[in-house]
Structure to design on (316 residues):
């Protein structure tokens, strides 16, 4: 029986309620996306407005001096900026090989699948440990166990500025190792997902031309997933730069500038956590200035991550 063209036209027409639903969902997504942007702009504006007094008093000198003296209203964030960058970058240098290596180990067939899944679950459980618990672990377990080695490192390489301070307690190195534990699950999970997304035909093609397993991993699988891995690494860097509680508990919270990784130090996040509750006057503005610097650093990290991921995705 032939279909009447008018009936076919009526079947193709969408009911008004469906059109209204699509229109409402469209504006809902626009509203939620705009809300995220508005919240970010408001945070930047509030922190910037709060830091104007300190910017006017200290200017760029705030970024290159380390004297932090609320009694005399003298403030400089160099120690905190140096501590933030050093702890984040050094922890990243340690965590990236561990995280990517673990991701390769649990995605390739080195051991039976149940064992790989168990290892992956254990790594992900690290992300569920509260940062305050990691801080307590660092104080009572990590730092005492690490001190003999750090003392030997100091007396062996004390002429090198990075090891010139004798470790006597909390310091930069324990904080770095705590950050390694905290960002390792992020790098591992995102790297694992990126490696699993490599097409199976690409793997089979590598083995078909005579590649060994490690040759296929290094020359085919890793380049194909490098954009996702780099995105995970940059996300972990942002997490390390903004970590507060665990670092505050173990870094020593000293505003005396030192190049040494064995000396007590400070980070911007730790300084804000320690001082903001009792600050007043120009100290509040100086802390807001430091917070604004931290926001700018994290924004730069995210912009670089987007550029690197885009370039690598186009290359591979």
């Amino acid at each position: 029986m032939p279909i009447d063209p008018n009936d076919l036209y009526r079947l193709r027409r969408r009911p008004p309620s469906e059109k209204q639903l699509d229109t409402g969902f469209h504006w809902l997504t626009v509203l939620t996306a705009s809300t995220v942007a508005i919240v970010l702009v408001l945070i930047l504006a509030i922190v910037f407005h709060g830091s104007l007094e300190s910017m006017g008093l200290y200017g760029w000198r705030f970024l290159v001096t380390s004297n932090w003296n609320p009694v005399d209203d003298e403030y400089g964030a160099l120690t905190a900026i140096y501590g933030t960058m050093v702890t984040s970058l050094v922890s990243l240098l340690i965590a990236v090989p561990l995280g990517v290596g673990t991701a390769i180990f649990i995605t390739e067939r080195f051991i039976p699948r149940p064992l790989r899944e168990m290892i992956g679950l254990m790594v992900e459980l690290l992300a569920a440990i509260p940062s305050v618990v990691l801080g307590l672990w660092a104080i009572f377990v990590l730092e005492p166990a690490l001190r003999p080695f750090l003392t030997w490192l100091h007396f062996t390489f004390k002429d090198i500025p990075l090891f010139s301070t004798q470790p006597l307690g909390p310091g930069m190195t324990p904080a770095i190792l705590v950050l390694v534990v905290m960002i390792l699950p992020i790098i591992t999970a995102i790297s694992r997902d990126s490696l699993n997304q490599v097409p199976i035909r690409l793997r089979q093609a590598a083995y078909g031309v005579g590649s060994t397993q490690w040759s296929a991993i290094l020359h085919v699988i890793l380049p194909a997933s490098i954009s996702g891995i780099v995105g995970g690494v940059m996300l972990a860097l942002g997490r390390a730069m903004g970590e507060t509680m665990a670092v505050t508990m173990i870094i020593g919270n000293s505003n005396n500038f030192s190049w040494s990784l064995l000396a007590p130090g400070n980070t911007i996040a730790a300084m804000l956590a320690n001082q903001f509750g009792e600050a007043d006057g120009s100290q509040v503005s100086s802390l807001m200035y430091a917070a604004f610097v931290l926001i700018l650093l994290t924004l730069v990290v995210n912009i670089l991550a987007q550029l690197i991921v885009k370039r690598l995705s186009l290359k591979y």
Summary: The chain has two domains: 17-50, 78-267+309-315.
